[in-house]
Each structure stands twice: as C-alpha cells, then as structure tokens.
Specification:
33% helix, globular
C-alpha cells in the first residue's frame, strides 16, 4: 500500500473554483482501480492550507492514475489556483 500526501495552499479568492475542481477529481479518482482512499483535508487553523491525502493499492495503480484524463485536466485547472508542495510518498512501517 502506498500513501501520498500533497500539501497545498488555496487563497480565498480561488477557493470556490479550486474546490469545484477537487470535487470532480475526487469523485472520478475514487472510481479508479486500486484507489483505496482519496480526500482533500482542510487545516483547522489555516483556512488556506489543505492536504490531498491518497492511498493506493500499488505503485502501478498510482502511475495509472497520473495518466488519466481527469487527473491531467484537474492539474492544469489547479495550477493557477493553488500552490502545491512536492508530494510525499509514504509506506506503512512493517513490524514483526
């Protein structure tokens, strides 16, 4: 299982438009094979701070996601609306 965290900032003037893009991206992505969860989290103290939190069954499923039309269209639409940090790619620590 692979988890992805993408911190981003959406300023007030772009919030409604950006959230509409995210709503469609999330809806379409949750239907993809291998998507275990996909949600946008809002910071409770900073109204401009968000984190896109993803969980994928495999690296191959994530790679397939990045090639979908809805992902590519959303990334193009969000580019002028937000600033995003590099994605963190995480795996759970396995304990014996």
């Amino acid at each position: 299982m692979l988890r992805i965290l993408v911190p981003c900032r959406i300023e007030t003037e772009h919030r409604a438009e950006a959230l509409a893009v995210y709503a469609e991206l999330i809806r379409a992505t949750r239907e993809e094979a291998g998507c275990l969860s996909y949600e946008l989290l809002a910071d409770v103290e900073d109204p401009a701070a968000f984190v896109l939190a993803e969980c994928w069954r495999s690296e191959a499923d994530l790679e397939a996601h990045t090639r979908t039309p809805h992902f590519r269209e959303a990334m193009a639409a969000l580019e002028p609306l937000e600033t995003a940090a590099n994605a963190q790619r995480l795996r759970a620590v396995e304990f014996d």
